[in-house]
Design a protein that fits this description.
4-stranded parallel sheet; Rossmann fold; 6-stranded parallel sheet; alpha/beta
Length: about 325
């Protein structure tokens, strides 16, 4: 918030699900203090509308502002516990995909908006992106990403078949901070011709460049995959994170059911990763069919749609 120049006030909050009996009293105390702090903020700020995007930190504000109109945005297809709690206080629930409707009882409050995208993503064309990375247009481009910390199982599986993959494609590999040095060390031992096709980095601010340049992406299945991949019409091989609730599995299933993605199980990556990636990298017609299917799921004006619902509750006329 400070980086964006937006005024920010903190509110005490804590989770209560699965925290254990020892931590529960302290967490409940934080929530109560959070409600009182939220009331003070509301008295000072006097908002016309509240906007929630999930997380237990929003719960105290939702309780304190129960009499103020509220909009909730659900990024993943299946809402988690916090989002289900916040939905009780929302007058309008905006969702990324139509499949979210089955997880709510009062569907008349639901508005399909799509996933809101950063404005800078649209600044990248395929030509500009390939120039940015110095890519060869004659070979397909595989983007591998696992978020800011990376996805260790994906990184390891890619490293184990790296030479084979580089024979088939150029690779933009966003490793995350934890595995970057390991991946970098491996890259330094490769033959020069393969090393030239391998673009590694721990993190990338210009994510739009990587998405615009890629012919295929290998990644987890977080909520952003529901918005960014459709926007760029980017075929995906998705590996849902296996050590959490099933949000990513549901997201991946949605894209796969629309023929826009292929799903790989995390525990089977050693055997399945290269055959699946190589098949898609060698088959331009299959990728094109997936690209068309992915593009059909795009809602590029999602942010405007969400904003219009917020303004609607505030009683402000929009064009």
């Amino acid at each position: 918030m400070k980086r964006a120049g937006i005024p920010y006030r903190s509110v005490p909050a804590a989770g209560v699900h699965g925290v254990g009996l020892r931590a529960l009293p302290g967490n409940l105390s934080k929530i109560v203090r959070g409600v009182f702090q939220s009331r003070r903020i509301l008295r000072e700020f006097k908002p016309d509308v509240l906007f929630f995007t999930g997380g237990y930190v929003a719960a105290p504000m939702a309780v304190a502002g129960h009499n103020i109109p509220a909009v909730l945005y659900v990024p993943d297809i299946e809402p988690g516990l916090a989002l289900n709690f916040l939905a009780r206080y929302a007058d309008i629930i905006t969702v990324t995909a139509p499949d979210s409707k089955k997880y709510f009882q009062r569907t008349e409050r639901i508005r399909l908006t799509g996933y809101p995208l950063r404005a800078d993503l649209g600044a990248w064309s395929r030509e500009k992106a390939t120039q940015h990375f110095g890519l060869d247009l004659s070979k397909p481009v595989l983007l591998v990403t696992g978020g800011s910390k990376g996805a260790r199982s994906i990184n390891i599986a890619v490293l184990n078949r790296l030479n084979d993959l580089l024979e088939a494609a150029q690779i933009i590999h966003i490793t995350g901070s934890l595995d970057f040095e390991t991946v970098k060390s491996t890259a330094e031992t490769m033959p020069a011709d393969l090393k030239a096709r391998y673009h590694i980095m721990p993190y990338l601010h210009e994510m739009g460049a990587a998405l615009a340049a890629a012919d295929l992406v290998l990644s987890r299945a977080g909520a952003s995959s529901l918005g960014e991949y459709p926007f760029f019409g980017l075929p995906a091989v998705l590996v849902p994170y296996p050590y959490a609730w099933r949000y990513q599995k549901v997201n991946a299933d949605y894209l796969a059911e629309h023929s826009a993605a292929v799903i790989l199980q995390d525990e089977l990556l050693a055997d399945t990763l290269f055959p699946v990636l190589n098949d898609l990298l060698q088959n331009e017609h299959k990728r094109e069919a997936m690209r068309t299917a992915m593009q059909k799921l795009s809602n590029p004006h999602a942010a405007d749609a969400i904003a219009s619902h917020i303004m609607e509750l505030a009683g402000v006329q929009t064009l």
